[in-house]
Amino acid sequence: MSNEFIPAAKPIIGDAERDAVDAVLRSGMLAQGSEVAAFEEEFSRSLVDGRATVAVNSGTSGLHLGLLAAGVGPGDEVIVPSFTFAATANAVALTGATPVFADIEPAHYCLDADHVAGLVTERTKGIMPVHLYGHPADMPGLTEVASRNGLALYEDAAQAHGASLHGTPVGAFGTFAMFSLYPTKNMTSGEGGMVCTGDAEVERALRLLRNQGMRRQYENELVGFNARMTDLHAAIGRTQLERVADWTATRQANARYFDTHLEGVGTPAVADGAVHVYHQYTITVPDDRDGFATALREEHGIGTGVYYPIPNHRLPSFAREAELPATERAAATVLSLPVHPGLDDEDRERIVTAVNTLAKAGA
Predict the structure, then answer these.
(1) How many CB atoms lie within 10 A of CB 16?
(2) Is 283 helix (H, G, I), strand (E, B) or coil?
(3) Domains in the chain, please, with CATH?
(4) What pLDDT, on a 0 to 100 scale, did the predictor assign at position 3?
(5) Secondary structure element (H or E) that encloses residue 87, with its range
(6) Nearest-CA neighbor of 283 among 262, 301, 297?
(7) CA 351/CA 357 separation, integer angstroms
(8) What residues contact 112, with CB distance under 8 A and at least 6 apart?
(9) Is pLDDT at 339 greater than 60 in this prediction?
(10) Strand order in the sheet with 77-81
(11) Per-residue pLDDT for 1 more than 80?
(12) Looking at the predicted structure, is the pLDDT value of residue 292 above 70?
């Protein structure tokens, strides 16, 4: 059995991506152009039921511009999970609005609709769930809270390309949704993000905001940003989009193998009607999670990730008082194992053997 290190994540970049980039370089048209337009159309058709899609230079830019385009600004509040990457709350704060941190439901690590309902105030503008680890959030419950209170829904779908709930794809629920294309995501463009919306006014605002407030050169309609995606990045993304469904199927097969064979740790739950795309395969280790991760790395050559060890409300950048018990438990016990399409049968066996051995021994 090989002792080669198994990384927690492994971007897949091959000849197809290199050829696509070379074609753009040969064209001499490197900035936002025909490749970006084609990528937007193909992403829309493939993943979000035909919703208008706007390519930007990062997922964080996508969240920021999406919120601005949806009218979020100073004086507003947006309810977000604390158990997520800081970009979710950062994007809210960058608009001048206030992120309000809600707890998660422990089965799927996504926003708890009941807790969200208790946080609504007269300043609340919207709710922004994160489809964490590739599992869709409780959109029926959150939609009911939003509808009852006249609030908007915004989706942080950074980790959820191809996930769905009761037949509706993630990204087709809210006023807008953002998908990240960072190198470790289920598909990548090298760096970048996609913002999807069914609202024509939000779409128009997004296209203005990403390009210095212009639709036509030098006709600046508002104060905007330089958040464009290049054709180089779009060319990579288009190539990856052709294969992401197959990669997702491999991730799901890897997850089923782990579900069947892992012992002594908590394995991911999948809600009824949900399609989980396993950006992460996240187990729970109730005792000494960090020691467990160290042993996997140092004794067995297996990389892992902790997403996320410090809840947003306890970060120095926010430092809010909040009672979020499910969030605190998750931050102390979650551990993500390799689940990427680069695993082979021997890798999967090594991971299972190592986890079961450590769990049995108490790490």
Answers:
(1) 16
(2) strand
(3) 15-241 (3.40.640.10), 244-361 (3.90.1150.10)
(4) 80
(5) helix 87-94
(6) 262
(7) 10
(8) 102, 103, 104, 105, 138, 326
(9) yes
(10) 52-56, 193-197, 176-180, 152-156, 124-127, 77-81, 98-102
(11) no
(12) yes
